């Protein structure tokens, strides 16, 4: 994926996490944080610089795309957020959704080697039975016709998440208790 879908999921989860009564600054900070979380598994591309092959357990779309990694990162973030006073259940649901979504979205792509969703129990890379999302070219190849095609498809597929995240809503009406 070109990360557009991952960012859209992160932004939508941030909107759900902060609620309708948040300030614009708090919403933007949450969207940046949740979007970074949504892309965290792709930090595994640094493995290439260390000579770790794509197909290795710690290669691209390996362990960092697994359910175990998603649950671990969720537990860490929820523990930190809880100490900061964030609502624990809502934080768990939103962070867990974003963390789990990365690998699940990537198995919907039509290229690469698949994702090791069940690492460390299985090193098998899998794809979904249907792969409607075109795989994005890596590196500077993203600035090609194929890269533009991937961006356009992702913008179309994830438009509902962007709209939910950014469309203005009326503030909730609070009844007076007079």
UniProtKB/TrEMBL annotation:
- Give the signal peptide, or none: none
Keywords associated with the record: Hydrolase, Membrane, Transmembrane, Transmembrane helix
- Pfam families xrefs: YdjM
Q: Does the keyword Calcium apply?
A: no
The portions of this protein that span the membrane are: 30-50, 62-81, 93-119, 147-167
Q: What Gene Ontology terms describe what this protein does at the molecular function level?
A: hydrolase activity
Name recorded for this polypeptide: Metal-dependent hydrolase
Species name for this entry? Corallococcus aberystwythensis
Keyword set includes Membrane: yes
Q: What is the lineage of its organism?
A: Bacteria, Pseudomonadati, Myxococcota, Myxococcia, Myxococcales
């Amino acid at each position: 994926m070109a990360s557009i879908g991952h960012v859209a999921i992160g932004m939508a989860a941030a909107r759900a996490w902060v609620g309708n009564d948040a300030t614009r600054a708090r919403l933007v900070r949450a969207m940046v944080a949740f979007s970074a979380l949504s892309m965290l598994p792709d930090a595994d591309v640094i493995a290439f610089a260390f000579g770790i092959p794509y197909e290795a357990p710690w290669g691209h779309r390996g362990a960092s795309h697994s359910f175990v990694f998603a649950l671990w990162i969720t537990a860490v973030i929820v523990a930190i957020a809880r100490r900061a006073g964030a609502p624990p259940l809502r934080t768990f649901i939103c962070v867990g959704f974003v963390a789990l979504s990365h690998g699940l979205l990537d198995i919907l792509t039509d290229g690469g080697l698949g994702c090791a969703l069940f690492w460390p129990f299985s090193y098998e890379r899998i794809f979904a039975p249907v792969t409607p999302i075109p795989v994005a070219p890596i590196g500077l190849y993203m600035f090609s016709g194929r890269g533009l095609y991937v961006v356009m498809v992702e913008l179309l597929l994830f438009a509902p998440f962007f709209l939910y995240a950014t469309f203005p809503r009326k503030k909730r009406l609070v009844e007076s208790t007079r």
